[in-house]
Amino acid sequence: MEVFDLFIKTIILRPYVFIFLAAFLFSAVQLIGWPRTWRFWLISWATAFVCEFSSTRTGIPFGWYFYNGSTVGQELYFSNVPFMDSISFSFLLFASYCVALGLLLPFDFSTRIELAPLKEVRFDVGTRTSWTVYALTAFLFAFIDMVIDPVALRGDRWFLGKIYDYPDPGWHFGVPIANYVGWAIVGLISLAMYFPLDRRLSPLSPLQSITQRLLLGIGLYYGVLIFNLGVTFWIGEFFMGMSGVLMHLPVLIILIIRLARAR
Q1: What is the DSSP letter of 260?
Q2: Alpha carbons 9 and 249: distance in angstroms, whole number
Q3: Apex 221 CA angle, 48 and 23, nearest 5
Q4: Torsions phi, psi for 96 (to 5 deg)
Q5: Residue 114 has what pLDDT?
Q6: What total number of domains does the chain contain?
Q7: What average pLDDT does this structure show over 241-258?
Q8: CB neighbours (10 Å) of residue 142?
Q9: In angstroms, how far is the first alpha carbon of the chain from the final one?
Q10: Backbone CA torsion sign across 60, 163, 16, 170
Q11: What angle is formed at CA 31 by the lines to CA 28 and CA 32, rounded to 5 degrees?
Q12: How far is CA 259 from CA 31, 99, 192, 256, in A?
């Protein structure tokens, strides 16, 4: 009962995290079905938790940092790691995966629809578990954290709260470069376990409107990005916010150009 009470308190304290989590579950089931969704979720969450547990004790793979326990009793923790923090890795990795697919999946010209606003992509297992998708997903996963972590580090100035810190602040708005390397490692480990499962599971039934289904996950990526940029500007960090906008704008433009059907 105590764990259940803390879980309810976590939802009340961090409603935005669970909105993003619900969006992940809905979009993932639409694209890859429930059997793949729960495996993706479990693998990515477990990998993130183990890596956070390790890094707060050994500095591997994120570098040295610590949770100060300021919200113990207000939200659910597993050991010294807040549940909402490690669970966030799951929906961020899936969102990054969708953006990578949007940038790399080949087009399906056999189902060309002249009046459709989007180009249709081909969702075959060989392409969606390729090395290029693998590497690009890990990069985009770390890339979005370059907006998330700097503003999260300033959580005492908004409703996140000051829940963690780095003993040796880094050059990127106080965040060490090792942190972003750690995010990429979490992504690489998670996908290295998930992709073989994806290949072995029963093939997905032929789906209509793959691009539209993919847009749900892409929308999640940019929804999280806009949320964090909004908070960044809200707390008065204009330079930090503009840095994030200019970093991510080229990727968004390329994605739109690639998927939008020319008129």
Answers
A1: B
A2: 36
A3: 80
A4: -65, -40
A5: 52
A6: 1
A7: 97
A8: 21
A9: 58
A10: negative
A11: 75
A12: 17, 11, 27, 5
d(CA 193, CA 173): 32
> Is a pLDDT exceeding 70 seen at residue 112?
no
For the stretch 73-108, pLDDT in tens is 999 999 999 999 999 999 999 999 999 999 999 998
Q: Which two tokens stand for residue 263?
A: 């008129």
Going from the C-alpha of 236 to that of each of 177, 227, 233, 248, the distances in angstroms are 23, 15, 5, 20
Give the pLDDT confidence score for residue 115 in this predicted structure: 47
Block residue for tokens 């606003």: 117
Residues 6+ apart with CB under 8 A from 168: 63, 64, 176
Tokens of 215: 């847009």
Q: Which amino acid is at 170?
A: G
Secondary structure, 3-state, 176-198: CHHHHHHHHHHHHHHHHHHHHHH
The C-alpha atoms of residue 214 and residue 26 are separated, in whole angstroms, by 12
Global pTM exceeds 0.85: yes
| Residue 16 amino acid letter | Y
What domain range includes position 212?
Answer: 2-259
Can you state the percent helix, strand and coil of the chain, rounding each to 5? 70, 5, 25
Give yes or no for a contact between 237 and 252, defined as CB atoms under 8 angstroms apart: no
